[in-house]
Amino acid sequence: MTHQFDPTSLREYDIRGIVGNALGPADAVAIGRGFATRIRAAGGTRVAVGYDGRNSSPELEAALVSGLVAGGVDVVRIGLSTSPMLYYAEATLEVDGGIQVTGSHNPPEYNGFKMVHAHAPFFGDDIQDLATLAASGAWSEGAGEVTTVDVLDAYVGRLMAGYAGGAYRIGWDTGNGAAGPAIEKLVQLLPGEHHVIFAEVDGNFSNHHPDPTEESNLADLKCLVADKNLDFGLAFDGDGDRIGAIDGSGRVIWGDQILSILVEPALREHPGAPIVADVKSSQALFDRITELGGEAVMAPTGHSLMKQAMTRTGAPLGGELSGHLFFAGEYYGFDDAQYAAVRLIRAVHLSGRSLTELRDAMPALVATPDLRFPVEDTRKFAVVDEVIARLRSEGEEMTLTDGARVTTADGWWLLRASNTQAMLTVRAEAKSEAALAVLLAEVDAQLAASGVTRAAP
Question: Which domain of life is it from (predicted)?
Answer without folding.
Answer: Bacteria
